[in-house]
Design brief:
Elements: E1 2-4, E2 7-9, E3 33-38, H1 40-43, H2 53-68, E4 72-77, H3 80-95, H4 98-104, H5 106-110, H6 119-139, E5 145-150, H7 158-173, E6 177-182, H8 204-217, E7 222-227, E8 247-248, H9 268-281, E9 285-290, H10 300-305, E10 312-314, H11 324-340, H12 343-359, H13 361-378, H14 383-389, H15 393-409, E11 417-424, E12 427-435, E13 438-443, H16 449-460, E14 463-468, H17 473-487, E15 496-498, H18 505-508, E16 517-521, H19 524-533, E17 547-551, H20 557-569, E18 578-584, H21 591-602, E19 606-609, H22 611-615, E20 635-641, H23 644-654, E21 659-663, H24 667-676, E22 681-684, E23 703-705, E24 713-715, E25 721-728, E26 748-749
Parallel strand pairs: 3-4, 3-7, 4-6, 5-6, 7-9, 8-10, 13-14, 13-16, 14-15, 17-18, 17-21, 18-20, 19-20, 21-22
Antiparallel strand pairs: 1-2, 9-10, 11-12, 11-26, 12-25, 23-24
Helix pairs in contact: 3-6, 8-9, 12-15, 12-16, 12-17, 13-17, 15-16, 20-21
């Protein structure tokens, strides 16, 4: 028998054979039977007298939601002492005689000292009220709750233990939520402490140990321990270097320094860890999290059950590779080393990667074939996504050419001086380009994205975290291996990391202390989800590619059908494909209009009519549901406008600021369109498909940004750089520049150093 706190623990509980806990957070959604342990700091108010009703209501709502999903919920709660203290204090104040109150004076009454309240008396006064509160709250969700009080002695008697087990099973069978607490009114007095001012509180270790014991004996799938800290840290929370431990493994406690106990209660984190490890040994998964200030959606219990990265998850299965947090730190360290290399060395890495793409062509295509076969067998990818997933010899050759362009253009990217100013005599200021830091690029289906983005990150000296879709796992693995092989020639292998763990994208988007910029590459839904999930990290990209082509009255017949066909049909799934065709009203029922319609029919493009276009037709195509639609397929909308000005207004109202085109021979009309359309890319007599980093001569792109700050349009090396200021002085102080100082500001612009001609 091992004794933690005052409750004896039998090494393996009699009522349960050794079970198997969940290995990963993502499996927690399968938890059927769950114990939620509420620490004193969670249940009590900040003044340590009375209950935190708002917090308690939220907890009850979450438990009820999970119970109504068919799960079996149990609560181990503290709070009776705090609730009782509140009631007894009121009673003492009210029991003062009116005469004494009047005699003492109002000011003295306010300062009247409250006598020290004995913990067991507080518990006796508070237990019934606490349970009544739980019952009232659960009733709102049509759920019945039942109270069970236990003492240490109940665990000494085998018959009592069996009775407790049977009672709990019967309550769960009847869909009742058991609420369990130590019977603090009759337990032996604990060691004095000052957890609640003037009150000796029953040690929180009792409830931690009680929760673990019940969880294992009841063969519970999950134990959620809520306290007033985010989880388990590698050093005391609040210290400068403290880092939250995402996953804690048995044996790791040697590397952890425990801090002080919580605001209330006695157990502290060390007791929680001991109880958690014991429960884990008994087959119950455990998460320790903050129940006072939930950081994600405000619903910490349901977030944990959904597998979100909340608190510290205890697991017996240790992954072979580093955690994503460790990968981000490795990428940052590797990126800083990469940025310190000479430009020629960074270019050499990219040239080497380009060579590997062609030299290892057969191995790459073989891995890609596996991905394609698995995707086709599972039938989970639409045809456009399958096309994006596919690699070919020609694609690899194009990739290699693009990478060599990046290498050639990267010679003078990092550390380039873009402004020089002489502030005063011997005080010179420079603004120079520097990497952004650590980039997180999340991409779907397209394995060719990996070497492109890697080359741009290398050229700009950024650390890189890559998260690819599982449909391209084999392709991504070999391409990442080749990228690290190229990086190894200058000892910066860790600068580019591929996330292979079961990290959810939403969890990655919350690593605001490790990641400086998120770049999503994929569907508009993916981009929107990432923009919504990102917490404190800027997201570069566009959620939609609603691109327009406007056909003016002065358009060339020869150019119109070629440009429209290429914009819509060359690659309809691309974000720079035509989605809405705007036609000047005067072109309706003309041979040019008929040629456009005939070409779209031959290309099997489904036409949707805009409201104005439909009004001109007796029998029109299906009217469009929304003029803000990105079809991503052989479909487009046709709408009619009265002028170039109306075309611009339509684009501003319904477009996504991506790419918009005018077809006309009238230079004045074209210039009006080019100057007034507020999109990232605006073209005259050219296909929308030119909106691409490779076609712009950038070598490749990390994506197309419709943002109005930092980078816009196809984002190449320049878009992955920011700047810093370097000031070189000689004993300069600001006071010398005051009204009566000895120095004057010059603010002279200085010539920039010559850029590398290559």
């Amino acid at each position: 028998i091992r004794h933690w706190s005052n409750i004896p623990f039998i090494t393996m509980p009699l009522s349960r054979a050794h079970g198997k806990s969940f290995a990963h957070r993502s499996e927690l959604k399968h938890a059927k039977r769950i114990v939620v342990k509420l620490g004193s700091a969670v249940v009590t108010r900040g003044d340590e007298c009375g209950l935190a009703l708002g917090r308690l209501a939220s907890i009850v709502e979450q438990v009820s939601m999970l119970q109504n999903q068919g799960r079996e919920m149990m609560i181990v709660t503290s709070g009776a002492v705090a609730f009782g203290k509140q009631r007894l204090r009121h009673e003492i104040l009210l029991s003062q005689s009116v005469r004494q109150a009047l005699h003492s004076g109002q000011s003295q009454l306010k300062d009247m000292a409250i006598p020290v309240l004995e913990a067991r008396a507080c518990a006796a006064a508070g237990q019934s009220g606490l349970m009544a509160l739980y019952e009232a709250m659960f009733t709102q969700y049509s759920i019945c709750a039942a109270q069970i009080l236990v003492t240490n002695l109940d665990f000494h008697d085998e018959q009592k233990r069996r009775n407790l087990n049977g009672t709990l099973h019967e309550l769960l069978r009847m869909n009742i939520v058991p609420i369990i607490n130590t019977n603090d009114a009759v337990v032996p007095p604990p060691e004095p402490n000052s957890d609640l001012q003037g009150v000796n509180v029953i040690s929180v270790k009792d409830n931690d140990s009680l929760a673990a014991r019940l969880a294992v004996e009841m063969k519970t799938d999950l134990l959620i321990v809520l306290s007033d800290v985010e989880g388990l840290f590698d050093s005391p929370p609040g210290s400068d270097d403290a880092k939250l431990i995402d996953i804690f493994y048995p044996g790791d406690q040697q590397s952890v320094t425990f801090g002080t106990k919580s605001r209330v209660g006695m157990g502290g984190m060390e007791a929680k860890v001991k109880a958690a490890l014991w429960a884990l040994q008994g087959g119950t998964s455990v998460v320790i999290a903050n129940g006072t200030h939930p950081k994600i959606s405000g619903h910490v219990i349901t977030d944990i059950v959904e597998g979100k990265k909340v608190g510290t998850f205890f697991s017996e299965v240790k992954p072979a590779g580093p955690t994503v947090e460790q990968q981000a730190e490795m990428a940052r360290a590797g990126g800083r080393t990469l940025a310190a290399l000479q430009p020629e060395q960074r270019a050499e890495i990219i040239y080497r990667l380009a060579d590997l793409l062609t030299d290892q062509r057969e191995e790459i295509l073989l891995a890609n074939k596996k991905d394609l076969e698995e995707a086709e067998n599972k039938g989970r990818l639409a045809l456009p996504l399958l096309k994006r997933l596919s690699l070919s010899t020609s694609k690899l050759n194009s990739l290699a050419i693009g990478l060599r362009q990046i290498a050639a253009s990267s010679q003078d990217s990092v550390g380039r001086v873009i402004r020089r100013t002489r502030i005063a005599k011997d005080l010179d200021l420079e603004q120079v380009t520097v990497p952004i830091g650590v980039l997180l690029v999340i991409f779907e289906s397209r394995p060719d994205c990996l070497p492109q983005v890697s080359a741009l990150a290398i050229a700009s000296g950024n650390g890189l975290l890559l998260k690819g879709g599982k449909e391209a796992a084999h392709s991504n693995q070999i391409l990442h291996h080749l990228t690290q092989e190229a990086l190894s020639i200058h000892g910066v292998r860790d600068a580019v990391q591929l996330v292979n763990t079961r990290e959810e994208v939403e969890d990655l988007c919350r690593l605001d202390k490790l990641i400086d910029l998120i770049i999503p590459r994929g569907s508009s839904q993916l981009v929107r989800n990432i923009q919504k999930a990102a917490k404190g990290i800027p997201v570069m990209g566009h959620s939609e590619g609603i691109c327009h082509v406007y056909v003016d009255t002065d358009a060339s017949v020869e150019k119109v059908t070629r440009i429209i066909r290429d914009s819509k049909c060359e690659y309809p799934a691309a974000c720079n494909a035509l989605e809405t065709l705007l036609i000047h009203r005067d072109l309706l029922r003309t041979p040019l209009f008929d040629q456009i319609i005939d070409m779209l029919r031959v290309e099997q493009v489904k036409i949707h009519a805009g409201p104005k276009f439909a009004s001109y037709l007796t029998f029109s195509p299906s009217e469009v549901k929304s003029l803000r639609t990105e079809y991503g397929d052989l479909e487009c909308c046709i709408e009619v406008v009265d002028s170039v000005k109306e075309a611009v207004e339509h684009i501003h109202k319904y477009g996504s600021s991506h790419t918009d085109v005018i077809i006309t021979e009238n230079e004045k009309t074209a210039e009006f369109f080019l100057q007034h359309v507020d999109s990232a890319c605006v073209f005259w007599n050219a296909s929308t498909r030119f909106s691409d980093g490779y076609r712009f001569g950038l070598g490749a792109e990390v994506g197309i940004s419709t943002s109005r700050i930092h980078a816009r349009g196809p984002v190449g090396i320049e878009g992955l750089l920011t700047t810093k200021w370097l000031l070189r002085g000689d004993n300069h102080v600001v006071s010398d520049f005051s009204e009566h100082g000895s120095m004057k500001y010059l603010h002279e612009s200085l010539p920039l150093p010559q850029r590398n001609a290559s």
